[in-house]
Design brief:
By secondary structure, this protein is mainly beta. The chain contains five helices and 44 strands.
């Protein structure tokens, strides 16, 4: 087992946990109680030790704010015919609209190039089925600004995980309300594998893969008080720095109730902003990028279909990037993408919850069959950390370390079935949970894994002996995606299994709930970030995933919305793909 900058072996000893492949079996309907609406304090009683998790309180405190006053209604008769270029008319309205008011797009199709929202205003349509932005370009709307980092300032002392305090060498010019980019040099004992240099600061041999967006609540001399706790420990030994933004972050901006076709949304250096009830379809590249975002909310939306299906960013859904932190992606549908939802050098404290994610595209083989199963919720580009994936339906979750590893991501109360809705031909890489070599300290707790009646299904493969067998697994671990399918590193690396906490998961291979025998705590809170049942569940039972109850799975609202779509609307057809 490798050491890391967080004192990993010492923490294991302190927690008295032996995180190995050993498991214990309990009959369904075990003794762990599930509270109907736990307080946030109940999270402290969960079986996940505090050093393996963070405080998850994502998004906008109090939820997305209501905006009721319309400043401008765009003339649909003039600009909503799908022919006239509506870009200038809409952009002028966004630029002149008073703060906290709405630019309204009545039913119609509005042809645009790119719109920029850099003020606290909302762009709202009459609903995704009525108002469409037809995009003539690669992306349709940007909230925020392009890269605008200023000069870095070194920390004067170490800043501990969980703290809301930073002491810097020189805080001149930093004021309450400022957004800062906090990062540090890579510790090779933690950050391993290839890099994505376009998603982090640094240079060859000195990348800064671990970082976080923070907001200053108050300043006293060179001491900064933050609005959210740190999700990692940042040290002077690793050259920890804060970088102010040259321009203030965009705040309190929103996009609501419309459809974008042929172009997506970029959010960069925006805070307390949102996307709600927005459909994106036939997008080239990434449907929604959250880069350097802080407390952003992406909810109640639907991303589906790509203009062209390809690896390397050609057909991605929702992406948390550039050390975005404390964001919430909740109650969405993401369907038929190569990478539907992914963490790419994300910054911790993010929550991906109660989404329906299905049918991940991969490159067909020579016979036109989708032989390889892609992940539904993935980690891509080092080093996503301290993130929460809760309550989703996502057939295949985990970390493919093609572009670097990840650590301390928690998968809680999800259903990972290992089976897609319509892509039924994969015979390679079919599993519920995939954790590649070099992955560190993952928590797989309280999930329902697999599906009844899968012929030949097996519980686990973590060696070359069975890895390539064309059967479904519950867990496939330790191979190195950077080397190829079921290729293992030399020297051998078993870190993914050695540092894994898997506890209280029901699977359909053993037919049992599997507990870690070294962890006596079998209390599974209803949620790790919610204090009560979310309103969008309505009358449906919550939590909808229950690995210890007699009924394992109930209704997920996002899945129900997908299934209620008009016939044909949920079917992507047969898009043409190209190789890497």
């Amino acid at each position: 087992m490798r050491a890391d900058a967080q004192g990993w072996p010492l923490l294991l000893a302190a927690a008295a946990l032996v995180l190995t492949a050993a498991t214990a079996l309990a009959e369904p309907g075990g003794t762990a109680p599930i509270a109907a609406a736990p307080s946030l304090e109940a999270v402290e009683a969960s079986p996940i030790p505090p050093e393996r998790r963070t405080t998850w309180q994502p998004g906008i405190p109090g939820g997305v704010p209501p905006r009721t006053k319309i400043c401008t209604t765009i003339a649909a008769a003039t600009y909503g015919d799908g022919i006239t270029d509506a870009t200038k008319a809409i952009q002028d309205a966004l630029n002149s609209c008073p703060a906290d008011q709405v630019v309204y797009l009545p039913p119609g199709m509005y042809r645009i190039s790119t719109l920029f929202i850099r003020r606290p205003v909302v762009l709202r349509g009459a609903g995704p089925g009525s108002t469409t932005l037809q995009v003539e370009g690669n992306f349709g709307v940007m909230i925020g600004t392009w890269t605008n980092l200023g000069s870095p300032v070194r920390l004067a002392s170490d800043a501990q995980k969980g703290s809301k305090m930073l002491v810097v060498e020189n805080a001149a010019g930093i004021v309450a309300g400022d957004m800062l980019h906090l990062d540090q040099l890579d510790d090779p004992a933690v950050v391993q594998g290839k890099d994505c240099p376009y998603l982090k600061r640094g240079k060859e041999g000195a990348w800064r893969s671990i970082g976080q967006m923070v907001e200053v609540a108050a300043r006293s001399g060179n001491t900064l008080t933050l609005t959210s706790p740190l999700h990692w420990t940042f040290t002077r030994a690793l050259g920890a720095e804060v970088v102010p933004l040259r321009e203030p972050a965009t705040r309190n901006a929103g996009i609501e109730d419309l459809r974008l076709r042929d172009g997506g949304i970029i959010v960069q250096y925006a805070a307390y902003s949102w996307i709600r009830n927005v459909e994106t379809e036939r997008v080239p590249g990434v449907h929604v990028i959250l880069a350097g975002a802080y407390r952003f909310v992406l909810r109640d939306s639907y991303a589906h279909r790509s203009r062209e299906y390809a690896y390397g960013g050609g057909s991605y859904g929702y992406s948390l990037e550039w050390q975005a932190s404390d964001n919430l992606i909740e109650n969405n549908i993401v369907y038929y993408m190569n990478k539907p939802i992914q963490f790419r050098s994300s910054g911790g404290g993010n929550v991906v919850a109660y989404n329906y994610v299905d049918d991940s595209w991969s490159q067909p083989d020579a016979r036109g069959k989708f032989w390889f199963q892609e992940l539904s919720i993935d980690s891509h580009c080092s080093f996503p950390h301290m993130e929460l994936v809760e309550g989703n339906f996502a057939p295949h979750m985990g970390v493919a370390s093609t572009w670097g590893n990840a650590g301390f991501i928690t998968y809680f109360r999800n259903h990972a079935s290992s089976q897609f809705r319509t892509i039924t031909t994969p015979y390679g890489n079919v599993e519920a949970i995939q954790l590649d070599a070099r992955v560190l300290g993952m928590n797989v707790v309280g999930n329902v894994l697999g599906k009844p009646g899968l012929a030949g299904a097996r519980y686990e493969t973590s060696t070359a002996a069975m890895c390539a067998d064309p059967v479904p697994f519950v867990y496939r671990m330790n191979y190195d995606s950077a080397l190829g399918y079921c290729k293992f590193p030399d020297p051998w690396d078993s870190q993914a299994v050695d540092t894994l906490l898997r506890h209280g998961n029901f699977d359909y291979v053993t037919g049992r709930t599997v507990w870690d025998p070294q962890n006596p705590n079998r209390t599974l809170p209803s949620s790790l970030y919610l204090s009560e049942k979310p309103a969008f569940f309505g009358g449906a039972p919550w939590p909808w995933v229950d690995p210890i109850g007699s009924i394992k799975l109930r209704e997920l609202p996002a899945m129900k919305r997908f299934e209620d779509l008009p016939r044909g609307a949920a079917t992507p057809g047969a898009p043409k793909g190209r190789g890497r």
